[in-house]
Specification:
The protein is globular and about 95 Å long. Helix 5 (about 90-110) links the parallel strand 1 and strand 2. Helices cover about 45% and strands about 15% of the residues. It contains 31 helices and 21 strands. Helix 8 crosses helix 15 (about 350-365), helix 15 runs antiparallel to helix 17 and helix 17 (about 395-410) runs antiparallel to helix 18. The model has no long low-confidence stretch (mean pLDDT about 90). The protein has five domains: about 65-165, 3-Layer(aba) Sandwich (Rossmann fold), CATH 3.40.50.10380; about 170-320, NAD(P)-binding Rossmann-like Domain (Rossmann fold, 3-Layer(aba) Sandwich); about 330-430, Rossmann fold, CATH 3.40.50; about 440-575, 3-Layer(aba) Sandwich (Rossmann fold), CATH 3.40.50.10950; about 585-730, Rossmann fold (3-Layer(aba) Sandwich), CATH 3.40.50.10750. By secondary structure, the protein is α/β, with parallel strands linked by helices.
């Protein structure tokens, strides 16, 4: 990629990021109430006079703050902005987007409420005093982006002053994930911690934390050499030293990184791009272990290292290479486990437990849903899979449980968990897998770029969506429309780089004759004349785009912005038919408060028969499984199991009978009302014979009217988001967005269409 292209991509990314952060409610966080506040009585309980009761209870016993307030699930993400990402000392205010982002990750991966706090001071004592005084408010403190050596002092003193977990992720998060990867690399190369020689390049917070953790785990002090800009840290060195470096000084004749690496088993890179050369790699021991973790460019690129040492096991901080050392594998789950047992600190035992849990998870068989989401690739323990995938939903169970148990075993847990197996089940149910699955879908399509036709290419939102789709690296867009109209709009909007998106004019395409012949052959026995097919191909962009997909000139398509669903669907399906032994179905995902519901059929089948309802259930169940969910299907009606009787509910009951005959591998039952389907306690109380093992996550509606009304009401009124409608059952992939869809909606639909093209 040329320097000009890189600069353009950076500029577009910056513009998108600014728009992302400013659109709608600015920022990435909000506060929402967890209790109903719909009446005067509710207010009297939430505030005066009722709030006095928990206040007095906490005064009598401060530990009850965990019972009556959000403290037990609240983590402060605290920074002074002195070492933000690769940006350096940019100040407290400028660090806020990063801290908000960290809080979002806490919520997404571990259902922990994070609040960002940016302290405008570089005075270490002032910082320590400020954080320590806020102790009563939080269940834990996550220190972030604080420069060394101040970060060491801050963390140490806060751990001494406070009786809640204090964790500097830049240090210990990196150390834990690197240790997990190293455990597995040593296992594969049949080495032991006690005998390996380690060289760590970089003497900042992360490097020192990595070294300290490895020494705690069993690597001898004398077997580790830390290098900084001045070279190896050896006993007697006086240049550029401090107490933290001095603690790791060793006797060595090495006076350069190259000399230190001679015969080394392990290289830990926490320094700068290009710090390691091929010659250095050559001099390492057999089957060298290289963790080049500098971001965004590692100390040495994996292909360079492999070119001279094919036997090397390599990890980086990047997602586009195997074995990504990603802190998100650790910190959310470490805090989850620590909070759940009310740990007074995060100690070495808990860190080691986290590292071991992450390492062992990588050795387990990867569930189909995870492997499929990552492209169906064989995610199997080995040299290219020593660290679990960041979006593996099993991490919360494995790591949090291990951390909680270590806290209990080491005596820092103030609320021990009596039944760890029940705790594991609770953790598994705590997070909805949809968000993670969507991310791995994005990762997969980015790694396997497909051509997606944006049929309504002259529309502003479509152009913006196509550009965003390409800039995100998801695939290669093609705009359908008149070139001069699209270029004029691009220039008017000032969308740099959009002019390079391929444009196809349906009326003058070189492929028209081929498309006309194809369509005529397909429709001639349905009453279509050749001139009808000619008119459709030349004038209807949906027909033309669908022909592109069928004839292999594109991989998938998206449309729907300018027309209602039915005409868009009819035009596309003149060209693209259903898969064999299948039919078209549309489902929408409703995501709210960590819970996902699939609703169908929302667009295609107006009044489905019992057989069609069964087909719809099977199609949506397959999609739900693909996205990491265990299907539990409820056939909905206004009645429950025949009470009251009606012709409408009779079809739902017939669908159950048909599914009984088919014996599918998912749970289903009905007919039932929506409140019973979604309230498992109510279901058990009133209908203990119901076959569902939990609340339904797939709602099969009795008709198009109820399904469509439901998801559109939820879209406008509910907290959360609605994804879709998603088209299922086509022989070729296409998606139809709703009229008025946002740019993000169109990008999402295009991504789903691209993903289907990979199957």
């Amino acid at each position: 990629m040329s320097k000009k292209s890189k600069n353009l991509d950076k500029k577009n990314l910056d513009r998108e990021a600014l728009s992302f952060h400013s659109n709608g409610r600015p920022g990435k966080l909000e506060i929402s109430a967890t209790k109903p506040l719909t009446s005067q009585h509710d207010l009297s309980l939430a505030y005066s006079p009722g709030v006095a009761a928990p206040c007095l209870a906490i005064e009598a016993n401060p530990d009850t703050a965990y019972d009556y307030t959000a403290k037990g699930n609240l983590v402060a993400v605290v920074s002074n902005g002195t070492a933000v990402l690769g940006l350096g000392d940019i100040g407290a205010a400028a660090s806020k987007p990063v801290m908000e982002g960290k809080a979002v990750l806490f919520k997404k991966f571990a259902d922990i409420d994070g609040i960002d706090l940016e302290l405008d001071t570089s005075d270490t004592d002032a910082f320590i005093n400020a954080v320590s005084l806020m102790g009563p408010s939080f269940g834990g403190i996550n220190l972030e982006d604080i420069k060394a050596p101040e970060c060491f002092i801050i963390e140490q003193q806060l751990r001494e002053k406070m009786d809640i977990p204090v964790f500097h992720d830049d240090q210990h998060g990196t150390a834990i994930i690197a240790a997990a990867g190293l455990i597995n690399a040593l296992h594969l190369t049949k080495r032991e911690l006690a005998s390996i020689k380690v060289v760590s390049n970089g003497a900042g917070a992360a490097s020192i934390a990595c070294v300290e953790l490895l020494k705690t785990m069993g690597v001898p002090h004398e077997n580790v050499i830390i290098c900084d800009r001045a070279g190896p840290i050896y006993q007697g060195r006086e240049t550029s030293m401090n107490q933290w470096k001095s603690a790791h000084a060793v006797r060595t004749k090495a006076r350069s990184l190259a000399e230190a690496l001679e015969g080394a088993d392990v290289f830990l890179g926490l320094s700068a791009a290009g710090a390691m050369t091929k010659d250095m790699v050559k001099k390492m021991a057999n089957r060298p272990i290289i963790f080049a973790m500098a971001n965004p460019v590692p100390e040495i690129m994996p292909d360079e290292a492999k070119s001279v040492r094919p036997d090397a096991i390599i990890a980086t901080g990047r997602s586009d290479f195997p074995n990504q050392v990603n802190n998100v594998l650790g910190f959310p789950y470490i805090f989850r486990g620590a909070l759940d047992v009310r740990a007074s600190k995060i100690n070495e035992e808990m860190k080691i437990a986290a590292a071991n849990a992450i390492a062992l998870l990588a050795r387990e068989d990867v569930p189909e849903s995870v492997a499929e989401a990552y492209g169906g690739q064989a995610l199997q323990f080995g040299e290219d899979y020593i660290i679990p995938a960041p979006f593996d939903p099993r991490l919360i169970v494995a790591v949090s449980t291990a951390v909680a148990k270590a806290a209990m075993d080491s005596g820092v847990a103030r609320k021990p968990i009596k039944d760890l197996e029940t705790y594991r089940k609770d953790l598994s149910a705590r997070l909805d897998p949809t968000a993670s699955t969507l991310q791995v879908i994005y990762d997969r399509i980015a790694a396997n770029r497909k051509r997606v036709v944006f049929a309504e290419g002259e529309e502003e939102r479509v152009i913006r969506a196509a550009l965003a789709f390409r800039n995100a690296g998801y695939g290669d867009p093609i705009l359908i429309g008149r070139e001069h109209r699209i270029i004029e709009k691009i220039e008017k909007l000032g969308l740099e780089g959009a002019e390079t998106i391929p444009i196809t004019n349906a009326k003058i395409s070189d492929h028209n004759e081929d498309y006309i012949n194809f369509l005529y052959e397909k429709l001639q026995r349905q009453g279509a004349l050749r001139r009808d097919c000619q008119r459709m191909v030349n004038l209807d962009r949906n027909v033309f785009a669908a022909c592109m997909v069928v004839k292999g000139h594109a991989d998938s398509m998206v449309t729907g912005l300018t027309r209602s669903f039915r005409p868009s669907f009819e035009h596309v399906t003149r060209v693209i038919g259903p898969r064999a032994n299948s039919d078209f179905v549309a489902t929408s995902m409703i995501i709210s408060r960590g819970r996902t519901l699939f609703v169908g059929d929302v667009s295609v089948n107006e009044r489905p028969t019992g057989e069609q309802l069964a087909d719809i259930a099977e199609a949506i169940a397959a999609k739900a499984k693909q996205m990491g969910h265990t299907p539990r299907i409820a056939m909905l009606s206004f009645s429950n199991f025949g009470n009251p009787e009606s012709l409408i509910s009779a079809e739902a009951r017939r669908a159950i009978t048909i599914l009984d005959d088919r014996n599918p591998e998912f749970e289903y039952d009905g007919e039932m009302t929506a409140d019973v389907a979604l309230d498992y306690q109510l279901m058990q109380q009133r209908y203990p014979f119901c076959r569902l093992s939990g609340p339904a996550n797939i709602l099969i509606m009795p008709g198009l009217h109820s399904a469509n009304i439901t998801f559109k009401l939820m879209q406008k009124l509910a907290e959360g988001s609605v994804i879709g409608p998603m088209m299922l059952g086509g022989e070729k992939p296409f998606q139809i967005v709703q009229m008025g869809a946002s740019v993000n909606d169109i990008v999402q639909a295009a991504s789903l269409a691209a993903y289907e093209a990979l199957r």
